[in-house]
Write a structure and sequence with these properties.
5 helices, 3-stranded antiparallel β-sheet, two-stranded antiparallel ribbon, alpha+beta
């Protein structure tokens, strides 16, 4: 690795130390379906988001619930505090498309139709809400 790349990589790692996040890569669900669930919990308080995900009937909600618990555990590890008394919320959540498995389905008259099996990457950031009481 060159010196310039090493400097930027070190700066990126240093910036990541102050952020609390969890990533879920190559989820075999289409990004569109995952975004529906991600939009439900975006900006919510953590405990409320966990209950929303727990009682949602969508298949993607189970995976996002597990990811949110992982992000909370990462926050607890880095700050050495309990999440129960902290005012945690989901600061940002992004769903990006990942690789596509391309398959062929047989069709009439010797043709073949393409099937795209989509997958996605989910990144979830957790942060504390700073109120005016704690600032003063």
């Amino acid at each position: 690795m060159g010196a310039r790349k090493k400097i930027t990589a070190d700066a990126r790692k240093e910036a990541q130390k102050s952020l609390y996040f969890a990533k879920l890569n190559d989820v075999p669900t289409s990004p569109r379906k995952m975004r529906l669930v991600a939009d439900m919990i975006r900006g919510m308080e953590v405990n409320k988001a966990l209950s929303v995900l727990k009682f949602s009937s969508k298949e993607a909600s189970g995976r996002l619930e597990k990811l949110l618990k992982s992000a909370i555990a990462n926050w607890e590890t880095k700050t050495e505090q309990k999440a129960d008394n902290a005012n945690l919320y989901i600061s940002s959540i992004s769903v990006d498309s990942a690789t596509m498995l391309k398959r062929l389905r047989t069709a009439p008259q010797g043709r073949g139709y393409r099937i795209r099996k989509r997958s996605n990457h989910v990144t979830l950031f957790v942060d504390t809400k700073i109120t005016n009481d704690t600032q003063n």
